[in-house]
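Lab notebook, page 48
Experiment: co-folding of the full assembly
Goal: obtain a model of how the components sit together before planning crosslinking
Operator: M.T.
Materials (sequences as entered):
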Amino acid sequence: MRHVLRLREGDAVEIFNEKKEEAVGRVVKVGRCQVTVSVESVRRYTPQLPLIILACAIPKRSKFESIIEKAAELGADEIIPLLTERTEVRLKGDQLKKKSIRYQTVAVNAAKQSQRPDVPVIHPAGDFMAVLERLSREAVVVMPSLVGERPNILKAFQAISQPQKIAFLIGPEGDFTPQEYTLARDHKCVPVSLGETVLKVETAALVSVACACLYYRHV
Amino acid sequence: MRHVLRLREGDAVEIFNEKKEEAVGRVVKVGRCQVTVSVESVRRYTPQLPLIILACAIPKRSKFESIIEKAAELGADEIIPLLTERTEVRLKGDQLKKKSIRYQTVAVNAAKQSQRPDVPVIHPAGDFMAVLERLSREAVVVMPSLVGERPNILKAFQAISQPQKIAFLIGPEGDFTPQEYTLARDHKCVPVSLGETVLKVETAALVSVACACLYYRHV
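Observation: model returned without errors.
Model output:
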């Protein structure tokens, strides 16, 4: 605010946070590491429904950052790094902390660039079972699958009318295990196909989010 | 064939080329730089309709390779690097030759990885006007647009029934110029929206191809 936006006392500002609150106010004091703003009004930005949640297996190298970038750009509301049986990347301690900060930065930048008015929430990484249990209580859970009966995602959407929350479970490079598929079925996940080719993790993630945005929100 | 597949005289092989021909045969001779195969039968692989053509502005750095990779993965049949007024990358001579070979390699690898039975054709880069004229003669041309009246791409597809060829014109980072938009309109391009956020070139390209595959081919 001081060095890039060069804000001074008395300047008008708009601020938003991750709780989808937007504040209008004026700069009261510009300190070296801190800027004081007097807030004149706060409004809650009303997100479009359905809320779109992406729970995606963490691929190797920095690909998860690219997944966050694309999902934020397209309009996902929440992103959950997913630990599956075949996920090889398991961060711990300092490495994990650094990564979390990096993920948040990527999300903020992508949100700005794509001109969306809010920033998606990046959750801490969660185990498949825990994430599945939580999501299936609060959302329609859709699972792009490489095996079994699975309608085209756009066809599947026709049978899911006006969901409040829709979540996607995206498997790792080696796919979900048969046990994970069984668990998902037991939790009423909707298996879908993303086409006739085998997609990479990041492609599957972004095709799912794009289809949901275009099908449900942008009518 | 010699070093990786370790083929020997008498081994059975399946070969395919970019003309969508598949041949079955046997290795007759393995030389140092050349393998001779006696072809027993050739069949033409019948592509799914509509043919999907992606004409996409060339972004900076190696992003066009990533566009080729994703488009090939998703099922595009032809890819045209597009030179628009605001395209900064213009390759020439040796650099262009090298790039073309690299593009083809990327397409072949992505096709293999995604388990599709053919490889998309990568055309030489073409100027907006020339590409527009050619495409509008032979395909329904769809143009994701950031300005003007433009229905959601999935809605727009409802009005385009059973096309034989569908082409997408994807603009550069700074968007198409007003002149290019006018030319496109004169050539009966269909303007569409890809959602409410502003997408990067590569994201717009891949959302377009994914939607076309899911909407028309994978019913």
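Interpretation: The helical segments of chain A are 63-74, 93-113, 128-138, 153-158, 178-186, 201-217.
Next step: discuss with group before ordering constructs.
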